[in-house]
Amino acid sequence: MQKFLLLSAALFIAATAAHTQPAPASNIQQYTTENGLPSNGIKGLQWDENTGFLWMATEAGIVRFNGVDFKSFTKETMPEIGSERMLFLVRNNAGRIYTSDQPGNIFRIEKSRPVLWKKSTAPVGGNNPDLGQYYLLSVSETLFKSKVSKPRPGRFASGANRTICTSDTSCFIQNGNTLFYYSTTSAGPELVPVEEKTLNSIFLIGENCFIINNRKEIFLFHPGTRTVSPVSPAGSGMALLKDMNNSNILFWQTGMNSPVFIAGEKAWLFDYDGNSINARLVTSSIPPDLYIKSVQYSEKNNLLFIGTESKGLIVISRNRVLSKRRDVVNMKNRNSYYSQVQLPDGNILTNESDVIGDHPTDERILPIKGKFGFNVSITGGILWYSQVDPAVGHNCLHAYYPATGQTIRYPKIISSEIVAEMNGQIYLANLYGIGILEGDSLRYLCRYPKEMDGTVIFDFAPIGQDMLAVATCGGLLRFHTGSKRLDILFSQENICVRSIWKYKNYIFFGTYGGGYYIYKNGIIRAMPLDKNKYLLYPHCFVPDDENYCWISTNRGLFKASLPELIDAFENKRPSVYYHYYGKKDGMEMTELNGGCTPCALRMKDSTISFPTMDGLLWVNPQRAKPVLPVGEIFIDEVLVNGEKVNVDSLQGKTLLPQTQELVVELGFSAWCNKENIYIDYQLNDTLSWKPVNTANEALIRLSNLNPGNYVLRIRKLNGFGAGNYSYKEIRFRISTPWTRQWWFYALCVLSLFGVVTIYLRYRTRQYQIRQEKLEKQVAEKTKELQEKNEVLEKNDTIKTRLISIISHDIVTPLKFLTVAGKNLIEKRNLMPDELQDETIREMTNTAQELQLLSTNILNWIKYQNENRRLVKETFRLHELVNQVLGILNSLAKQKKLELINEVDEQLEIHQYFEPLKILVYNLLANAINFSEKGRIIVSAGWQDDQVTINVQDEGVGMTPDQIKNIMADQFIISSANIDNRKGNGLGYLIIKDLVKMTGATLRIESEKNRGTKVSVLLPVGK
Q1: H helix runs in 10-77, sequence order
Q2: pTM value?
Q3: 760-782: b (≥16 Cβ within 10 Å) or e
Q4: Which domain, by its residues, includes 476?
Q5: Which of 163, 505, 634, 963 is buried most, with the most CB atoms less than 10 Å from its CB?
């Protein structure tokens, strides 16, 4: 190629403009709420070079940006935050970053997350008295702590002052147009008589402090002597500083190594060489109409960060690659290019006949006129190419001789040939075989096998002594020039080999869809791919002068370390670091082209020109320095079964046996494109690593974890070189459930032993069990007979009671009625009227008593059936008592007794209605029977969760022995009445049976000749 350039240089004597589109020198990314930024209003920026994180104070909390994802710290994630409206973001002389929320809570950035450093002293809803001293956070913790509780010195505020730190205990402060000195020993800020009331700005460049006054004079300030000296006006930065105004602004704050000067669309950095201030242009691509609040710059990564009042975050990076396109629209030419030829002026001639470059070229003396084929070769200073020859009407081989400017056509060689040179001999490869040039014709030395006849060829190159390799859709072929033998080194169905490159003793070859391989001494190994598998379609391998290899693909460009590639081949390593270049690096078209010769072109200034689907891609390895994914791995968040746990406490933590899922969220710096982040993890494994998907959130999900001890190891690839990793290790334990404890297994063994023992006993006691079964049957029969006997005895008792009642209390009154009635009939005329009336009254009373007795007998017999099913009802007790009084009122009136119902009309109970009615009936009947005067009162009321029904009379009363006799379980009905009064005792017998049925309690209070009070305590629902 160099020979060709030297020979052809003389031909280019006239020049016309070679038009190409100017590509932007910077890549601009704007982040707003539409693409992930929590708030468009940014109060402050701080760049942490150590961690690679950009910190932002916003109106929606504290935000961390790693180049790819935003991590927000809000009230939801940090309860210590009182308000998500942050006030400022500053860095002190030790490099620590601080921010404060609106109530005055101060947070310090600890590597990957903010922590509460000082809680606000402001009362709820009140003003913070210490807020006036917060500007001292930009100096040191020592000075801040010594002054924070002191009265505020004037109207100083962290966002309105610049501080120049001289030590941990002192600083200079620019407040307005005046300079002050403040230290831990001074009572307040001391005025410094330097440019008093004319101070415009103060800033540092490195260790040197500079002052600009309102007259735009620039001085070097000496803090020790508090004096100034003028700065030489010769530097390139002086003119910019003198032009500083409201539109051209100097941005500097503590922690910045150099100020950033922004004027319109341009930004400069300042350097000081000990004599003058010089300006270094950073970018010319700042978007217009920005209200800039804060600026930061990363020297290491060449990144400019601009925080705006309302338009979010602007990140500007220098393009590392250059996209080149034609400027003149030519509808007849494609804008996708393949083969290229470098011209002596540094421009590129493409196969579409377009000239791409930065220099003027005379198109009349180009080595190739018009379009040409995809394959161009240079051997011995001769340029070989294929082109349609109008004279013969078809495509044929051409040779251009730069020394003479002559082009020779070979009409007989009509297929698309690739030319290679070995040992001074010109070889050609085409669709059908390999041959040499003889005269104006091609003489085949070897034809492809019949099944490969007509295969497409992509590359043809020497690979060793007397050996040529051909890249075809039939595989990688090797041709021995001495023996004329053709070998198939590699073949894979439906996979085309498209590029060949020899590096030392290693042969690299790329396929379309199958990745790339390295061949050496009969060994072929597939090489590791990138994480997105873009390298399944490699187009070209191009070395640079720094021992790196550039690999073009359909989805972007990769840079790899050649020693690392060789090490991976020799030691079968599973991974290689491939640094990806894409859109963020200035690549406007990421689909690069291949299947052509040359697949890329190394230019005379070491720039590599790659063909793409839209123009060319120029890469200067010296300027395309990558931003590597260096830095620590941080644990942002840990979720156990969906519940957040403290990140710091997870190390060595024992988790519950019910732990179903453990999620670990990772934090890391990622200014190098997502494609360059390689993070793997292993759990209790020292051999295999699993990749972490970093496309959206870098999460490690661990599920179905068994009890035991775990070691989670995480690694991040930091760039080129074998073993270049950062590691993070987390140890935790999942406790063993009780069902897996040793004592549980021992219990199971004992249980099994017990079961076996029981089984053996069961077998040995079969006859005993049979005997016990027979005994049980006998016992059941005996019990059944006893129950029947008890029923018979009960029936006999009932019958005995009935016979006693009937024989005494029914037959005797009936005899009385018979005799009295007979006397009235036979001796009526002999009986006085008074005697007749008395006899009739006695007969009436006797009949009424027989009626009551008969009713009680029927009720008693009815409720002797214990199997009778009753249903409780809800009713008003007052109404029940009224019904009973309605029945007994006539009987009471005969004895001139007053029946009174004092039960609350609203009292409702849930009980058996009919049994309770009969019970009340008998209580009242007894009271009437044993009373001759006065009142009988029925009352009721709540007592705890029971209702007490009271029946109180003023009758004859009872002695304690009589009460004891009535309450006895074996109370026997007899004709002996209380004080020889009429009564059969059946009423109390019915009462006691009904009390038992309703679950109630009977209580009798009586005093002889003073009356009786009978109380029934009923368990009812309110």
Answers
A1: none
A2: 0.71
A3: eeeeeeeeeeeeeeeeeeeeeee
A4: 323-619
A5: 163
